[in-house]
Amino acid sequence: MRDLEVGVFLHSLGIRDPAEAVRKAHELGFTCIQMGALPEEYRTPEKHRALLDLIKELSINVSAVCASFAGESYKDIETVKETVGYRNPELRQVRIQRTLEIADEAVAFGAPIITTHIGVLPKDESDSIYQGMLEAVKHIGHELDALNLTFALETGQESAAEMKRFLEAVGRDNVRINFDPANMILYGTGNPIEALEVLKGYIAHVHVKDGHWPPEPGKLGSEARLGEGDVNIPAYVAKLKEIGYRGPLTIEREAGTTRIPDLQASKKMLEELR
Ligand code: MG
User: Fold this and answer.
1) Which segments in the chain show pLDDT lower than 50?
2) From the CA of 86, how far away is ligand 1's center (Å)?
3) Global confidence as pTM
4) Which residues contact 248 (CB under 8 A, 6 or more apart)?
5) If you measure from the C-alpha of residue 252 to the centroid of ligand 1, how many angstroms do you get, rounded to a whole number?
């Protein structure tokens, strides 16, 4: 895979079936994809094998697999706090276990990275929820090390400085960042270009997504077509190059009814910018 290969996060295609989505990504000219965890009906050896064969046959690289969990909702900030990642102590153990199952899928796909949203960190680092989330991430990092996998935590719900302190507290070389510039804008947690400077030693994987700032504090911003939001995509790509990032530029599109043309335009834009 070349440096700064333009990739796509498979769910951006708006196609639920992974094999169908892989075929469509290939048809659009993508050779690098990020996958989600496999849906229930794919968790049989036959289905899994067929998908692996397809990916191999089409010479597609899987750069990362995203761990997400049943019951997560990004409706608004309060719902994100209640439902996303390892924050809820009652769901934490089950989700750690599920992450490790997804890690096995990543190994099978030849992906070196698992990404996830860990959930909103409490501001008080002595809070038992903060400490529980820290222990969860340390534990998963330790387990993934044996599989040669990196655990990349997605940005957005924390400021860059808070994320950096958390990573320092984790203190593991295989726990890094999946940088999503739009999330920082959607959650109002800071200028993403400046955040890259703060987190530059920690970036394992990136999303290329655009968005608008929240209309008022406490609300979420809205996703935009690449180049039409507030990220400043040319400056983002330039900054990634400046800090020495060489991994894929994985396009993510989670909204809108014109996904395919949007992805085609985004791919073209990034191929010119990289
Ligand atoms: Mg993202």
Assistant:
1) none
2) 17
3) 0.96
4) 1, 4, 5, 6, 7, 32, 61, 63, 205, 206
5) 6
